[in-house]
Amino acid sequence: MLKSSFRCRGSGYFADVDNNCQVFHVCHEMPKIMGPPRYQLYSFMCGNMTMFDQLTLTCTYPDDAVPCASAPDFYAVNENIGHEDALFLTDEEMGKAERFYEEDNQAYAVSKEATRNAKPKDKLTKEVKPATRTEPPPPNSRPET
Questions:
Q1: How far apart are CA 98 and CA 25, in angstroms?
Q2: 79, 19, 96: which is closest to 51 by C-alpha?
Q3: What are the structural domain ranges in the chain?
Q4: Phi and psi based region of residue 139 (left: phi greater than 0; alpha: psi -120 to 50; beta: remaining)
Q5: Rounded CA separation 91/105 (Å)
Q6: Which segment of 30-39, 42-51, 82-91, 112-121 scores lowest on mean pLDDT?
Q7: How many CB atoms lie within 10 A of CB 25?
Q8: Element housing 91 (H / E)
Q9: What is the bridge-based pairing of β-strands 51-53 and 23-29?
Q10: What confidence category does residue 82 fall into, taking pLDDT thresholds of 50, 70 and 90?
């Protein structure tokens, strides 16, 4: 059974840390009549062993997401929703997320360097023979017997 202490405090998409980010919530501000803003809460589950990545606002595999415990650090990503001129992710948000991806970036750099330094014999090559063209038989010809 899922349990959550999550409450909407603004509009947007929010990872539910109480449920290991396998649940996320969409908060929508209701029309204001009087008093403080009220929000409608919609809850969704990520499927197939995925979790909600608060940085990209998508369900993805845990290895590709910011750690669930850090999700609240990225709730501000929601502030960019609906602003036509706003970047999806600001430099500040990318800077905060960079530490989670340093290991992946280093592995990518090593792989890229290894590919660049590979000798031609190390690469897989396949010799391709040029196609030979055969002429079609003349229109009223019979095969020889």
A1: 25
A2: 19
A3: 12-115
A4: alpha
A5: 17
A6: 112-121
A7: 19
A8: helix 91-116
A9: unpaired
A10: confident
Residue with tokens 């650090």: 73
Which phi and psi (to 5°) does residue 6 adopt? Answer: -65, 135
Q: Is the pTM value of this prediction over 0.85? A: no
Angle at the Cα of 21 (from 17 to 27), degrees rounded to 5? Answer: 80
Alpha-carbon torsion 36, 15, 80, 42, what sign? Answer: negative
Distance from C-alpha of 38 to C-alpha of 9, rounded to nearest angstrom? 9
Per-residue DSSP letters for 94-144? HHHHHHHHHHHHHHHHHHHHHHHT--GGGS-----PPPPP-PPPPTT----
Buried b (16+ CB within 10 A) or exposed e, 70-97: bbeebeebbeeeeeeeeeebeeebeebb
